[in-house]
Amino acid sequence: MFTNADIAELRAFRRELHLWPELSGAEEDTARRVVAFMEPTRPDRVLTGLGGTGVALVYDSGRAGPTLMIRAELDALPIEEKGTHDHRSRVAGRGHLCGHDGHMTMLCAVGRVLARQRPARGRAVLLFQPAEETGQGAAAVLADPTFAAIAPDMALSLHNMPGVPFGHVGLDEGPANCASCGLEIRLEGRTAHASMPETGLSPMRALVRLMPELTALGAGGALEPGFRMVTVTHAGMGEPAFGIAPGSARLMATLRCLEDDDMAALRAEAEALVHEVAAQEGLEVAMSYHDDFSACRNAPEAVAVLRRACVGAGVPVSALPPMRGSEDFGRFGQDRPAAMFLLGAGEERAQLHNPDYDFPDDLIPVGAGIFVRAIRDVLG
C-alpha cells in the first residue's frame, strides 16, 4: 500500500510539521504546507480557508455515490516542548504535543493512495480542520457556506492514545469523548491598604470556598452514565504587591460530562453555587464560558465501517472506555453517522499534552491503512 519512499517522505513531512507548530485559528503556514505537500496527489478539488484556515482535498470518482470524509487537526498547543529529539519545536512556547502532526500526515498518506486509484464511486474528502484544541474549529467549518459543497454522508477520524499498546485500536458504539467547557469566574469587591484590610472587600474567602466546592460538584470516577468532573485550572486575586489588600479575583475551571444533557445540569449547579457564595461575601460576580466541546458519540454504522477496516488491515481492535478528554469532532456527528477510534501509541510513551510527548512515526501507515480500507469498503 505504501512504498519505502512514501514512508520516508511522510516521516520527513511529519517532522517538518512538528518543527513549526501553530496555535488554534492561526494555522496559515501549516495549511499551506499541507496543500503544497499534497499537490502531487492531484486532488479533484482543493478548498482552503474553511472555517478560517481549514483545508479540504476532494478525490472524486466522477460517479454517483456517497461522500466519505476523514478528518485530522491542524493546530498545536501553547506548551513549551521539552523533548530532546532533533525535530523538536523551533517556536517558543508552542508544540505539537497532542499528535496532530501525525494525524495530518496519516491523511496525507491516504491521499497518496487515492492519487494512484480514485474511489470507484462517490467522493473521498480529506479535511484538515483548524482550532480543534479550543473547540471552535469544527463549528466554524460546519458554519462555512463552502462546506455545503462537500458535506459528507459519513465522517471518520482517530486520535492517537499513549498508554494503549502500539497499533491496537479502541473502538465502540456510543460515547467516545466527553463534553467539556471552561467556566471563567470574576469576583469583584474593593481594594484597601494592606494595613487596613477591614476597609475593603476581599474576595479571598469566596475564592477559597469556591475551589473545593466547585470540584465537589463533579468528582470524576468511572466513565459511565452520569460521569462528571470539575477541575480547577487557574486561580488568582489582587495585585502582585504587598501594600494592597485584594479587591478582585479570577477563577477558571473545566466542567466535564459524558453526555451533553448532563452538562446543562452541571452548568446550572455551578452557576448557582457561584452566585450563592458571591452573595454571601457581598461580591459582584460575572461568569463566561470558553472552549465549549460537545460530547462525541460513535454511530453504529460508522463503527461497523471502521471495525471491518481494522479486521481487514490485521489491526487488533477491542472496546475501550471513552476518552475523558474532549474532541470537537463530535459536531460532525450531529447530522450524519460519524465515529472516532483510538489508536495505541505505546504503553511507555509520554501522555498527550505532556511537554516531552512526540508522535511515533511508525504509527503513520497503521492509521492511514485503516482509513484507506474504510474508503474502499464504502466507496470501492
Automatic annotation (TrEMBL):
<dbReference type="InterPro" id="IPR002933">
    <property type="entry name" value="Peptidase_M20"/>
</dbReference>
<dbReference type="Pfam" id="PF07687">
    <property type="entry name" value="M20_dimer"/>
</dbReference>
<dbReference type="Pfam" id="PF01546">
    <property type="entry name" value="Peptidase_M20"/>
</dbReference>
<keyword id="KW-0378">Hydrolase</keyword>
<dbReference type="InterPro" id="IPR036264">
    <property type="entry name" value="Bact_exopeptidase_dim_dom"/>
</dbReference>
<dbReference type="InterPro" id="IPR011650">
    <property type="entry name" value="Peptidase_M20_dimer"/>
</dbReference>
<dbReference type="InterPro" id="IPR017439">
    <property type="entry name" value="Amidohydrolase"/>
</dbReference>
<feature type="domain" description="Peptidase M20 dimerisation">
    <location>
        <begin position="180"/>
        <end position="279"/>
    </location>
</feature>
<protein>
    <submittedName>
        <fullName>Amidohydrolase</fullName>
    </submittedName>
</protein>
